[in-house]
Amino acid sequence: MLRRWLLGLLILPLCLGYWIPGLAFGPRAAEDADFDIPGGHFYKQANGQGGAGDTGYSIISDPAAPLWHEFQRLGGVDSLGYPASRRLTWNGFVSQVMQKEVLQWQPDLGQVYFVNVFDELSRSGKDDWLLSARQVPRPFDNAPDAGQSWDNVVQRHVAFLDQDANIKARYLSDRNWLDQYGLPQSYGDFGHLFVVRAQRAVFQHWKVDMPWAKAGEVTIANGGDIAKEAGILPAEALVPELPPGVQPQRSAKPNVIFITIDSLSAKHVGVYGNTRIKTPTLDGLAQRGVRFDREINSFSQTNPSMASMFTSVYPATHGVNVQGLDILSGSLPTLASIVANNGYDTAGIYASRSLDAELSGLQRGFKTYQPAYIPDPGQTDIWRLFHGRADLTTDAALSWLKQQPRDPFFLWVHYEDPHYPYTPPSPFDTMYDRCDTCADGGYGTVDRIFAGAQLSERDSAHLVALYNGEVSYTDRELGRLLDGVRNLGNVDNTMWIVTADEGQSLGDNGLWFHPDISYETVVRAPLIISYPAAVPQGGVVGSLTRSVDIMPTILETIGVSAPQESEGKSLWPLIREQETGNTRVGFVQGLFDKSITVDTAEWKLIRNNTTGELRLFNLKSDPNELNNLARSNPQKAAELEQQAKEWMTSHRIRY
Length: 655
Known about the structure:
Layout: H1 2-7, E1 9-11, E2 34-37, E3 40-43, E4 57-62, E5 65-66, H2 67-73, H3 76-80, E6 88-90, E7 93-97, E8 102-106, E9 111-115, H4 117-123, H5 127-134, H6 150-158, H7 165-172, H8 177-181, E10 184-189, E11 193-198, E12 201-206, E13 218-222, H9 223-230, H10 235-238, E14 255-261, H11 280-287, E15 290-296, H12 302-311, H13 315-318, H14 335-341, E16 345-350, H15 357-360, E17 368-371, E18 373-375, E19 386-388, H16 390-402, E20 409-415, H17 443-450, H18 457-488, E21 494-500, E22 505-506, E23 512-513, H19 520-523, E24 524-530, E25 539-546, H20 550-557, H21 572-575, E26 586-589, E27 595-599, E28 603-608, E29 614-618, H22 634-650
Parallel strand pairs: 14-20, 14-21, 15-25, 16-17, 16-20
Antiparallel strand pairs: 1-9, 2-3, 3-4, 4-5, 6-7, 7-8, 8-9, 10-11, 11-12, 12-13, 15-24, 18-19, 21-24, 22-23, 26-27, 27-28, 28-29
Helix pairs in contact: 16-18
């Protein structure tokens, strides 16, 4: 029996009868969210849409396996959660994933077993993934169990619970804890939380407040959910299905996938003229759509910039100027709220903690608003406690898409990786340079630069190479998302918009990173729109465009008028070559309005609102902004300064 246990299966008791609190299953859905079908029952609750729509998962009894009968015998939803997959064959046995457990029919014994999911994850080589992505410790060596009685084995493993009294109390509070969770396998202290890994569940005791838990709370991540997330199950089994007799319906409106990449400078993308960097996904999207060469953001930090994209107004209007302190006003309609009100299923997947609802206010209109960041052990700065990782961001987006969102859908995905620190995974860490003695791209180097340290030419080149590695890594993961959408079908009726919240200065103009920088390396972003049904392939728009133009463009595409408050204009006249764009003017606000920047088709003026200093550049003859022409061309400087002052006055900015 010990061998069977450690191999991953355990015979079930007649009834488990306990529900695990603290999980994001939500309240029990309305009665019409599940119903009888021939041979079993159909559940929509775990379809990723909160029970809305037509899709879900059926659980039936048939000659191959009486899973519906066993599901009821074992306590049904209250004990096992809702079905979270189709029926599948796993390790040679008919199986089905529930939210809390994975059921496996054993015909030789005539009953269902629970799969010890975390043992299966170890056998599938997922321990490193569990540790890095979900802070789940590796299992301890079970060699001491050999030759021991079953009681001694249980006693040794249960002793692991003594490491954390809160987890122990929660673990043992269920009467059938051994059948519910299996044996504890290991434990680990990650600083911000303590974790106990069992064979079918992971217990997490949080030491700090998190968006999903308070300090001192114990939460449980269960086997069925983790098995799905880890990718050890056939992908086709996880796609929600339609009930018998229901045919799928397609919308005439396009799906919209809006990609924002943190700190991605246009000059570090292949299709924008960088022949060294490898960005095949972005290059391919541009070849299949339109590339905008002079896209200007409204601010040089994430939250103010993203708020402008989602409202089509400048920070002076939407009120988000200080990241993490200013929250988007609820009085302004957002892109997500407008498309949701026009029949779109909506999801926001983001990898930057600053975009949390309580720090940004951007959640309005999203039916699903989900962080994809993970804790960064050892960090104490509030903005460094978490970091995004492109593979996990793509995983989260694909997971939502595989749940068959209702057509049409609007999906926003925000990747964080090109933002400092520059620590790309292998092989991207050495893709463009290998230097074991150079300054690394970690926070230590970042802090030295912020403190005024001057890097050597070799160290600077290595940091640029690491940044480029982050860009190529993100491009690869964006490609994986594109492939996933392609595999799901309906690609021709999907509009892709890819841009950045800001760029990145890597020693350009003597400056590093992006906060409060108004040069082109930071405020100019890539912008690519691909929509095979309407956008010509390989197009290039060379005139000035603004991030506030993105929302009106998307709304025109789906046949909805932009709000009266919008300060942007649709890009469709430029795409159709009905407008030259030469009259469009962009404004970039500085932190606390210490500066204002005016961008036109040819010229750029940066005004220091504290000292009155002017910096004027002709971007056609001086794209790197090295020659200040404010003194040699005072007429143009005065013209643009007057334009800046009029704009600030209209937006109630004091100068």
